[in-house]
Amino acid sequence: xxxxxxxxxxxxxxxxxxxxxxxxxxxxxxxRCNIWHVRGRxxxxxxxxxxxxxSLREAARSLLEKPVTAVATHTHADHIGGHFEFADCLxxxxxxxxxxxxxxxxxxxxxxxxxxxxxxxxxxxxxVAETLITALPHAGYALEDYRIRPARPTxxxxxxxxxxIGDRHFEVLHLPGHSPGSIGLWEAATGTLxxxxxxxxxxxxxELATSNIRDYVATMRRLRELPVTVVHAGxxxxxxxxxxxxxxxRYLKCRDRRIAS
Length: 261
Ligand SMILES: [Zn+2]
Fold this sequence. Notes:
Blueprint: E1 11-14, E2 19-23, E3 35-38, E4 44-47, H1 56-59, E5 68-71, H2 77-80, E6 89-92, H3 96-100, H4 115-124, E7 153-157, E8 162-164, E9 169-174, E10 183-187, E11 192-196, H5 213-224, E12 230-233, H6 241-260
Parallel strand pairs: 4-5, 5-6, 6-7, 11-12
Antiparallel strand pairs: 1-2, 2-3, 3-4, 8-9, 9-10, 10-11
Bound molecules: zinc ion.
């Protein structure tokens, strides 16, 4: 089966003066994460780094003028694949070890998932195609060569930690449920939340091996009370508070029903 060679691996779009969104158009939607570059006075943040199929550092070169901290909203493969390229990596205590573990052979084929995982993903609303990428990053690239390379956690955070980039500072919110060390970065001054996979405008996943439904419910209740202006999530388009409340309520309703039945 022949996949064509991509012209470029990452796309980027300026959101405002300080925030740029990068993404990987040739990764299937399930695994296509939002990579957020936030420019600060003293340093920048890269919130998540994608699959690690091609070099993010290279692709984002024009943005990377300052020291940069690579933030892991959590350590699922689609969010931390590029972390190894960055010397400064921030992660929650509960997933720090996971970030630094070699993961053996990776796979960019559907067989990366067990049959029951595929069934769960289908129930949630994701059809997983035979390959997880729809083009190759360069000629000669073999899907079998994909690896998630270990990164070095240099800043371990927990609930309430402050991430200060000079002219703006973010508070770490511990938002477990999707995974035990899921975090959000909350800027109260602007009502901006980088939410990772705690909430996004698509099918939420709370039955992964790393998930905990009880924690997820508590996280959603917490998010519902947050006075957000905008949520820049781990997947899918950004949204405001009204949509956040809708997504939370839809999740809680669906969970209550499933727990009851
Ligand atoms: Zn995830």
